[in-house]
Amino acid sequence: MNIPTCTNHAPWKAEFGGKKLAGWGVLSARDEIVAYIPQSIVHDEANARLIACAPEMLQALESIVDAYQRYFDVMPVAWQSYDDYARGIIAKAKGQQ
Length: 97
Fold this sequence. Notes:
Elements: E1 13-16, H1 18-21, E2 23-27, E3 33-38, H2 44-52, H3 54-70, H4 80-93
Antiparallel strand pairs: 1-2, 2-3
């Protein structure tokens, strides 16, 4: 199965669909449906908002990893485990893990 890992049409937004959809939609900048969370699910709004900020969180995490690499020589060795953890999350988000 070929599942796309991310759309480039960020930022995403979470919107409640009202009675017609009875749940939360996560929409791309082009108003494409990225995800749908039924209102019956516990924490439906929180989940929709978390999904909506996923592209920005991924970008932020990639920026942090890049900064770590730029300043690797002066960073404490203990930070390596955080870098490894962040790289694993990035790989997972991109479907590489």
